[in-house]
Amino acid sequence: MHLLEITGLTKSFGGLQALGGVDFHIDELEIVSVIGPNGAGKTTFFNTISGLVVPDEGRIVFEDEDIAGLEPSEITRRGIARTFQNVRLFPDMTILENVMVAQHCRTETGVWGALFNTPTFRNEERAIEERAKDILGFFGTRLTGYRFRQPAYVLSYANRRRLEIARAMGTMPRLLLLDEPTAGMNPKETAELTGLIRKLRDEKGFTIVVIEHEMRVVRDVSDRVVVLDHGVKIAEGSYDDVSSNPDVIEAYLGRPAEEGA
Amino acid sequence: MNQTVTRRSATDLDWDRVRRWGIYAGLTMAFLSSIGMVENLDKRIIVDPILSLGFLALLWVPVAFGYAATYEEAKEGMAAPEKGERDLVGGLVTGLIGGLFFVAFIAIADAVDLRGVFPRIGPALIDLLTFDRGVAIGSLLWLVISGLLGMFGGLLHVLPDRVRRAVTNALAAVFLVALVEIAVVDIFESLRLTVISDWIYAKNGGVTIAGAVVIAALAALSSVRSEGDAVVRFRTRYATMEGDERKRFNLIAGAVAVVLAVVLPMILGGLTNELLANVGLFLLMALGLNLVVGYAGLLDLGYVAFFAVGAYTTAILTSPLSPKWTPMLTLDFFSIEGWVVMVVVVAVAALSGLVVGTPVIRLRGDYLAIVTLGFGEIVRILFLSDWLAPAFGGAQGIRNIPAAVAGPVEINGTKPQTIFYVVVVFVGIAIYVAWRLYHSRIGRAWAALREDEDVAEAMGVETTKMKLLAFITGAILASFGGMIFAVKVGSVFPSSFKLIVSIIVLVIVIVGGMGSIPGVVVGSLVLIGILGGPTQPGLLAEFGEFKLLIYGALLVFMMLRRPEGLWPSVQRQRELHQEEILQDAWLKAEAADEEGKR
Amino acid sequence: MTTTAERADFRFNWVDSFLLALRIAAIFVVVWGTVGALALGFVGEGLSGSAWKDLIVAGLAQGSMYGLIALGYSMVYGVLGFINFAHGEVFMAGAMVGFFVADYFFTSGLWVSNFIIAILIVLVVAVATSTFTAVLIEKVAYRPLRNSPRLIPLITSIGVSFFLQNAVLGLVGPAVKTYPQAPTWLSQKISVLGLQIEGTKLLVIVIAVVSMIGLWLFVERTKTGRAMRAVAEDKEIAALMGIDVDRTIVTTFAVGGAMAGVAGILWALLFRGVSFITGFLPGIKAFTAAVLGGIGNLVGAMAGGVLLGLFESLGPNVVLRGLRWEIPFGLGIAALAAGIAVAVLAWRRGRVSVASLAGALIMLGVAGIGQWSIVIPGLTQLKDVVAFSALVLVLIFKPSGLFGEQLADEDRA
């Protein structure tokens, strides 16, 4: 049984078909890259999995249950977390709070616990904070110490990307969806993040889907690569298979006029 | 790069700007006179016998505009603008131009009878404005006064910080002491120290000249001794407090507040207690709205509906004259019956919060505001209508709401002390609720969804549930306000629940600082305490008919100049002062790097 | 059996159920009331034919006035993306200053001797006042807030609105100012297209239509109009294309203000009384009209205004009055049967609109079987409830309007 199995995923916006019946699956502890030219439907693919967009048709089976059409928060609660292509943090909240708020779906004390400051509430708050600090510690000292109490907007671009991953980790998912995690990073940072993605799987036990443009990253992290073009899966396999596939080469190079779209 | 600083001459001014501000000043003074402010406020004396509130309402204009006309922003990384005679000249000219326009206004008003259009501009106003000395002398006097005051405004830039603070504090102190006259007199009477209050205050109101001089001197002295602006310092210190220190401070502040709340009503008179009760009532509502607007970011303009629901529920449950249902329960805070009333009020409020909240929470922010406004008006008109009159009494409302009871004590409007105590208890509860919720996962969820709703949802926050929770909590707090209001007034009518109540509560939240509990407390003290609620008078009861004008102007002013409010919440501060915080963060990062290298 | 694919078609949670219930209730009341009014009219208990026509004419006249005010909301929202809450006061200012001029003409005799010239001058003055007010507000209150979050200018405009109301109250006092009576030849009824239209109402409609056409030509045919559309689309790009954005925004406010000024005079012709709070309700209603027509869409605003005017005029007198009609038993059974049939269809298709129709039919059936009727006393008191309900329902169920909104992407969010 696959951890996530998607069949016939379809989504159109107005007349534009963003996804035209995509099949996809990922197994526990696998890292799969989704690549494709601009406008291939990669981000829509993520949006439908995470529930921000409701698919027109298709099944998204996660841990044996169909999650298509559920609320995004419910999908996150079931164990799928994501990052965004254009980093979307809560900029005015502190770095620590950004990770703490992500644990919302993993905690449950409600109004009463908060009002009466019950022991359960206090323990839970402490646990939330410690877990958040622990997660931030995963990224070295960049997001720790005096950084905890700083608003997120003070961070550099690369650190914002890291914080976004930390925030996704805060929801304690089984499956992580990373949308172009290295976009805008310099080569050194990119190389480091590549290692980090592997570490996320090896040490933390996440199963990971990555959308990526940087081919070196794709080569280094992926167990398997899926290529989308015009909302359709045109190839799938190991990096070497895919990179020599004529359809893929045509998608990337054969129609250069569409590159800029 | 240019290091040479050339001294600018006294006439090297932005004349265009001076002329503009001068004209604004003149028009403002003419406007304030035409709406009858000067005449109406003339009855209230500030310093006996030389200054009334009416004239004060005019005299601040040249000072403020003279100050504004010569204000130069100290830009980041540039040499601080040089101060000097220029400011004096600029202020003087601004004042003179303003005076000129104002004098022209007086002359026109004297020559032409404008009462057909502007009923307030009549001979009485002219006499008042010309100090009963005829237009010629009056005009001359105004030119001089306005010019000098404008120059004073300019002078404020030139004075060294310490002196400027002394001057402004002295003036503010005199005004404040005159402002709180009724409260101070009450206190001194209870302490049997009328000797002092009789000496400070003149018989027909206002501070005596001798009293004013002493107060001014005291205020000036105390401010010369201190460093920097005490209020600002305190606020920043409070904002930077962390963990235990903050807890300790909150504890002490809370204890002081409790002691004050217990002691004050005993030594204050009926009028002042009434006033404090109103402040508390609006504070209670503002705390509720703060949850909705400040925490969850939902601009609810129909907030008054929940206030009305609380009041009507209480009226129906307790009044013998309720037209349809007459359970005639007693609101006894120490008995089951009273708790039944409260539980029903909470339940009805929560239900109405759910009913109003559910359809609107998906709307974008501005549409939500208008729809809630619509709901608020629908509720009021329905209460007013003949159709539902058999249940709610129509325009007559429901009368004869009996006093609430706490043990042996009867609580009603004729004994404002008792109302005040009840209000304090509920405000305490509201503050506690707001504070606890804010520092819990619910508060964090609210903060997240205010910043980016989609992302909050994607991070596992059930935005629908959290928004409704804010709506309902806010509704419950407002309904408590309504309950106390019903008991206090003894009857409820639809006309007490107009849109203006929502707006005033919103102004309190915004002026105080969205999302900031101390801000909301300060906001309601200042606004309701001084200006008063929609129908309730404040310390400056004479402002009555100009209240809404001032609320409107204040709302605009705050949005333009200080959107984070008087006492901003930490998060708003971050949002609106990103640059300073960024610099600070940069320095810290550098320091940490240094540390790392070593 | 429904397949997964169909279920995934839309997300339906308890909020949607609540909205569905609200929708069903609204359709139920409107259908019952409308059918009831027609049926009552048929048996001679309802409104007479001429009363119907009068209501329609009144609705058209009022609606065209709302439409003119709505243009201001729509244009400002289209260009700046916020609700100018103070626009109602812009309208009131025109009507108020117009009154003093009209009053002067009345005492000097021009009003009676040469009504057309007098009213034209009053119109020009009102337009000038409203335009000036709108531009002034923009300059003082909104310009400094150009790039702040959407709610900030909205809150500011609420403050402006209260300030203006109370400034006018302070300046001219609380009394309602009544415009002098229009000459008698104007209040006579004229027959147009089978409708007996009172002269004043005809004049109102004509002025509104002429202004609307003028505005449309201005926006579609002139360079400034093109600039306005460009700025509404994307401010930054427009600026890069050499358009003076600030000036264009001022023009937008000015044109919106001018239309509100015209509307002020139409108000005077229709109702005559003006006071400091005159702007509030028409302002809210006009905003509803703007949303109903699709915000940012000028033709839509006008159409929305007319629709709202008709609805407001007919709503209380027809729909609410019609509720006293008992649905005949047989019809109730039929409605129930039809409702169940449609409900089955809705279940298959999963379409909310079909489901709400089914629900409403079922409720109509229940009402018929239960022989319900609701007699509401004091119908005119509920005129504003009808207007506000329209506001609430339009914003909740059709925030993009009937004719489509025309907004920049950044303002849609």
How are the SSEs placed, and which strands pair?
The complex is a heterotrimer of chains A (261), B (598) and C (413).
Chain A (H helix, E strand, L loop, with lengths): L3 E10 L2 E11 L4 E5 L6 H9 L6 E6 L2 E2 L5 H7 L1 E3 L12 H8 L8 H6 L2 H19 L19 H14 L4 E5 L7 H16 L4 E5 L3 H7 L2 E6 L2 E6 L1 H5 L2 H9 L7
Parallel strand pairs in A: 3-8, 3-9, 6-7, 7-8
Antiparallel strand pairs in A: 1-2, 1-4, 4-5, 9-10
Chain B lengths: L14 H20 L2 H5 L3 E4 L2 E2 H17 L15 H27 L11 H7 L4 H25 L2 H19 L1 H10 L3 H7 L6 E2 H17 L4 H11 L2 H25 L2 H26 L8 H15 L17 H25 L4 H20 L4 H4 L11 E3 L2 E3 L4 H23 L2 H11 L1 H6 L4 H27 L9 H14 L4 H15 L15 H15 L8 H7 L1 H20 L1
Parallel strand pairs in B: 1-3
Antiparallel strand pairs in B: 1-2, 4-5
Chain C lengths: L3 H4 L6 H29 L6 H32 L6 H22 L1 H4 L1 H28 L8 H22 L4 E2 L5 H4 L1 E4 L2 E4 H23 L1 H11 L1 H6 L4 H27 L1 E2 L5 H14 L4 H25 L6 H21 L2 H19 L12 H15 L11 H4 L1
Antiparallel strand pairs in C: 1-4, 2-3
Helix pairs in contact in C: 2-14, 2-16, 3-9, 3-10, 3-12, 3-13, 3-14, 4-6, 4-7, 4-12, 4-13, 6-12, 9-10, 9-12, 10-12, 13-14, 13-17, 14-17, 15-16
What attributes does this structure have?
heterotrimer, A: 261 residues, alpha/beta, four-stranded antiparallel β-sheet, 10 helices, 38% helix, 23% strand, globular, disordered C terminus, C: 413 residues, mainly alpha, ABC transporter involved in vitamin B12 uptake, BtuC, two-stranded antiparallel sheet, 4 strands, 75% helix, disordered N terminus
